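anyone seen this seq b4? input:
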Amino acid sequence: MNILVTGGAGFIGSNFIRYLLSGETGQSIEKVINLDLLTYAGNPENLADIESDPRYELVEGNIGDAELVANLLNSNSIDAVVNFAAESHVDRSIDSPEPFFETNVTGTLRLINECLKYWCSLEGDAKETFRFLHVSTDEVYGTLSTEDPAFEETTPFAPNSPYSASKAASDHIVRAYHHTYGLPVITTNCSNNYGPYQFPEKLIPLMILNALEGKDLPIYGDGMNIRDWLYVEDHCTGIFASLTKGRVGETYNIGGKNEQPNIAIVDTICEQLDQKRPRSDAQSYKTQKIFVKDRPGHDRRYAINCAKIESELGWSPQETFATGIEKTINWYLENQEWCENITSNKYQRQRLGSA
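predicted toks r here
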């Protein structure tokens, strides 16, 4: 397979590319083209360990650049497109919504337009087997109470933030291109990811790094907002299963079966760090916790019912939260240079200096 991955220098995309080239997919991956605009969350260092792999190529560019996308599709005989490219941080979307709609809506539209033209030009098996997989989020479904059943693929969309509204719009675009033009698409909606290489504005890496630096551990509201936590490598295997075995036109929810409130996540991180990297004063990292004003429109609970992908594609998460969070904490402890480059913005300064 020759695969075009968009947004592949980000957290989930970089883990997916690493999985593609790991030899663990069970399929021959001949070429992976990574198209990434390399904004603040896109970091080439995330894939430094494979940058010399002859099967891998990083292309700096925008999914909204129709000419560039068309050239990459045609010159590399692409068999599948996996679209991770998105602005994804809720707080940033509240502060400045427009970039989210530019990337997540207009960018997706321009990308899928070029994929449709390319697909229409194919013949035979190449046309039959081509796939466009769109990676989305459970946030498009809105919020749940503690008594509500988990989100299913048929749950009506009810986005509550500019970010989730932009992702819901992109999901609708992808669906429309299948039903109107016949483009062979698949959409996946995932729960909260965590694991190696996650940008430290998200909860888990933020808490790990703030704790180690002696900073406050800020927790929104009462800390009882519940999320389903999915280890990123499990997400990658779920995406690949959906890409290679999923039914065209379908949506698959990918979840970790690990619902926990934010306060429990923070406490778990503190307890593990107390054991793995004790504070010099012997106090618990929990003493650094503070509660801050809640985020506007903060969804109370997300939960994913992933029975469809389990029954149809034979996928299930392999990590419990206990095993996944320990792997994650160990990775951040063992990769302090990466963390320092991120928090100091050094990787961006280096890139801009060489541009």
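The domain at 2-197+229-260+301-322 is CATH 3.40.50.720 (Rossmann fold). The two ends are 32 Å apart (CA to CA). kinda curious what u guys think
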